[in-house]
Prior knowledge:
Elements: H1 2-21, H2 27-32, H3 38-46, H4 49-55, E1 59-63, H5 66-73, H6 79-87, E2 90-91, H7 97-100, E3 107-111, H8 113-116, E4 126-131, E5 137-141, E6 150-159, E7 163-168, H9 189-194, H10 199-206, H11 209-218, E8 223-228, H12 230-241, H13 245-253, E9 256-257, H14 263-268, E10 271-273, E11 286-291, E12 294-298, E13 303-313, E14 316-321, H15 393-416
Parallel strand pairs: 1-7, 8-14
Antiparallel strand pairs: 1-2, 3-4, 4-5, 5-6, 6-7, 8-9, 10-11, 11-12, 12-13, 13-14
Helix pairs in contact: 1-15, 11-13
Main location: membrane
Family: Belongs to the fasciclin-like AGP family.
Membrane topology: Lipid-anchor; GPI-anchor
Amino acid sequence: MMGQRQHVLLLIFSAFLLFQTSNAHNITRLLAKHPSLSTFNHYLTLTHLAPEINRRTTITVLALDNAAMSSLLDKNPSIYTIKNILSLHVLLDYFGAKKLHQIRNGTALAATMFQATGVAPGVSGFVNITDFKGGKVGFGAEDNGGSLNSFFVKSVEELPYNISVIQISKALPSVVAEAPTPGPSELNITGIMSAHGCKVFADTLLANPEAMGTYEDNVNGGLTVFCPMDDPFKAFLPKYKNLTASKKASFLEFFGVPVYQSLSMLKSNNGLMNTLATDGASKFDFTVQNEGEEVTLKTRVNTAKITGTLIDEQPVAIYTIDKVLLPKELFKAALSPAPAPAPEEAADAPKGSKSKTKSKSKTKSKAAPTPDSDSPAESPDDDPADQVADDDNAAMCFGAERLAVVGLSFLLVFFLL
């Protein structure tokens, strides 16, 4: 009986370790063991693709050796174009060596990280994989006229069914991925917003030089924008016009975050987030929470949901949201808000650099407005159920997962004894 109990405890401990580490992988460390792939590894880090790969739970990396990378770099692409090209070499599915030779009907179409950025039109972000007779496997970008001109060389690293690193003979040619990509300072962020359903917000931002300058000052260092769609923002304009000039600038800056946040980062890094409007006593923050694939932004006043991705290219990401998110510093909650957290409880996230129209020495730092000071009388009351942010949901979910693991462990012991 004692031996059986020890065996059961060993099984439980092993299951717990598996639960803790099942999603852990580090592409940089995996490739570091293979000197012939050092240039490829270097550019995964330089383009910030490595952390994106590490956050994915199911991924296949089509690695290029140093010779293949040299041929790619001979064309002198910008670092942003290199990122697009290498993104095309990251498949959002698991393909180990065995699976490559067991593809149903001999051909598979795999989505890539390039497709996930939202900048690849149509099927240009997909890769065709074909298993030829005799064990030869070809790869080709779907926008390359169906040409399969790169081939499977060997399996480099496999952690089924989490990550697979496969070496292919040469880079996948793609007209879309290889197109010149502008640097972040050359991006027309308001143009991108205007062309994709956020024109009212973009026009309002352009009409406010102070807020627009703050956005421009943060583009190169990292910027994430959550732009409300046209219909909700148009309905909100009367309230916006009632704000003072300084509060209009703070309100518009509230929709920008001074760091790059991909959608996968937002899903995994829940919690308080500072904004471009955060300045000393004026917190102007919101809480990021996710439930499955849905990501929401919450203040003490209301809740907005991310509905789409306009651009996701390091260091800039722009997302659409379904409502006008309201900062508690400017608007009253429809329901009585919970007490504000103590200063030490707030996340010490990066703060945006203010535009040149603001005092760099902070001598004219914005004071935190009182709830009743010349702001609209109250926030919109169309969705009273979601007016108060529930900052404890993330912790409760995590605790529930831990309790579930412990509970299953005890049940296993009970049935086996």
